[in-house]
Amino acid sequence: SPDKSPFVAMFTLAGLGIAAHIINFVVITSATSSANSGIFSTSRMAFGLARERSAPQFLGKISKNGVPRNALFLSAVMMLSSIVLLYAGDSISSAFNLVTTVAAVLVIFAWAMIMISYLMYRKKFPSRHEKSKFRLPGGRFSAWLSLVFFAFTIGVLTMDEETLRGLLAMPVWFAILGIGWFFKRRADARRHEAISTRTAQIAIVEASEIFSAR
User: Fold this and answer.
1) Contacts of 19 (CB under 8 A, 6+ apart)
2) In terms of CB atoms within 10 Å, which of 6, 44, 132, 146 comes out highest?
């Protein structure tokens, strides 16, 4: 049954009831540790992006103890959204499959971009690659093999209705990121234009003062 742990069922059938509780304890502590690690890394990443002006600036604020509390609060809220999935879906396994599918696609996307960047780097800067001390074992073959494996994994995700549901949700997420990136680029362009204009004005004023002094 997908609603029961196979390990707990096995120990229960074997007559080791306390072992089942131990397994549950290990699973809960492992999940708690993973959640704690996720909150920490996500909040620090959001904080770093904000400091680089790649995320809303309020996420870059810290408390008097040096904790990025806004980014931490956002991470906690996003994690608590899983409760909505538990009640909105048909079962716990459906929510689990949706979350793991989304996570898998995000990992595949990130590593695919790394492999593509590596191939582009080798093509554009072959001399730099030759001087590099840390090279990808297998070179281009490993990169293309990884991309083929990623494509195969995406194909496997389309074969099951629940994983396909999570896969189809990803374009919406990428669209949201694309819209956010578009507005960020516009904001950066306006800021750079304002800085350039202000710099030009200062230069004109300084030049005028020097000319007047002469």
Assistant:
1) 11
2) 146
Structural tokens at position 171: 């374009």
pTM above 0.70, yes or no: no
Q: Judge contact between 18 and 26, C-beta under 8 A.
A: no
pLDDT for residue 178 is more than 90: no
Q: What percent of the chain has pLDDT over 70?
A: 93
For residue 89, what pLDDT is reported? 67
Q: Which residue has the tokens 């089942």?
A: 20
Residue 110 is encoded by which pair of tokens? 């990130």
> Position 110: which residue type?
A
Nearest to 104 by CA among 144, 143, 152: 152
Alpha-carbon gap, residue 6 to 93, rounded angstroms: 14
The CA distances from residue 35 to 22, 68, 82, 106, in Å, are 20, 17, 12, 18
- What is the pLDDT at residue 148? 96
Three-state DSSP state, 125: coil
